[in-house]
Fold this protein.
Amino acid sequence: MLRLFQTHASRAARLARFVPSLVDAHCHLLPGVDDGPPDEAAALDLLRALSRAGFRGVVCTPHVMAACPLNSAERLRRVFGAFLPAAGRTAPLSLSLSAEYMLDELFPSLLASPAGLLPWPRRPRAAPPSRDERAEGGGWVRTNCGG
């Protein structure tokens, strides 16, 4: 998984020269949740790679679908909350939580009970830019890293 991402990360690093405050808007980063990193160590490696590639923020978007029955909003919030302290010590990125919803047999029941949905972050943001980056703007990249 990381070898695949390394090629992607080098492209992202080239892009980061032009758009310095990149936010990855679709990332399977949470450890052990879906087809992303299998454990916290691998997730932190991925987070370091994103940081080195120039990303300043990540929206974690684990799968929510019938094939992943354990991925309830409640569980994903717990996993995300447990991961944040280690992530904060590892890389200077702002993390947000949402989900990638599949239009399968589970989806109608999720719509019937919106409390079980993870909304898109109101304002996904990058970590505060450095002094040199402040006037250079920012951007969004959908990478599908980790999955």
User: Anything to note?
Assistant: The chain has four helices and six strands. The CA atoms of residues 60 and 97 lie 5 Å apart.
